[in-house]
């Protein structure tokens, strides 16, 4: 289990500025974070230049109907899964015609769900150069897990811009 270092408001503003400078747009696909990720992004003045939108697909069936996640994948694995997270991120890119799609899915708690303990979180990012995914095992109560998932998704986008920069808008 683990905890993440919270993404500061300054780091978030720097991310929005970097996306703006590179001419890149972003969209979110969220489950356990319930819209908190897109809300965090739009807290930054100027976010309207880069944030295309967000889809809160809290119910399993909406992951398929809104984001195009494979119904057979959802039936086989449930929503707490790497491939589901990747498909959600791809779906956000397509739905909102964004350069970058970022997704969150997992178990916020307080107890286990879909056979996974609370704190099991998948974040994924789909971008012009490919896709990235992280599996997290976060400690804490429901609010802490959700906040950690949001920070992990933002950190993943930051890392994509830093490490895949030459292929993602540079």
TrEMBL record:
This is Competence/damage-inducible domain protein CinA. It holds the Pfam family CinA. Gene3D superfamilies: CinA-like. It comes from Schaalia dentiphila ATCC 17982. InterPro entries: CinA-like_C, CinA_C. It comes from the Bacteria. Signal peptide: none annotated. Residues 14-160 form the CinA C-terminal domain.
């Amino acid at each position: 289990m683990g905890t993440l270092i919270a993404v500061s408001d300054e780091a978030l503003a720097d991310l929005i500025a970097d996306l703006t400078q590179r001419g890149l747009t972003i969209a979110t696909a969220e489950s356990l974070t319930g819209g908190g990720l897109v809300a965090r992004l739009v807290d930054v003045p100027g976010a309207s230049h880069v944030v295309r939108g967000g889809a809160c697909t809290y119910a399993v069936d909406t992951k398929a109907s809104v984001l195009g996640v494979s119904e057979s994948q959802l039936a086989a694995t449930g929503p707490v899964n790497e491939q589901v997270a990747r498909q959600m991120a791809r779906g956000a890119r397509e739905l909102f015609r964004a350069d970058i799609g970022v997704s969150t899915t997992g178990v916020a708690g307080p107890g286990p769900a879909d056979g996974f303990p609370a704190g099991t979180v998948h974040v994924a990012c789909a971008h012009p150069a490919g896709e990235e995914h992280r599996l997290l095992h976060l400690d804490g109560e429901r609010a802490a897990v959700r906040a950690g998932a949001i920070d992990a998704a933002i950190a993943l986008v930051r890392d994509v811009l830093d490490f895949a920069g030459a292929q993602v808008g540079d």
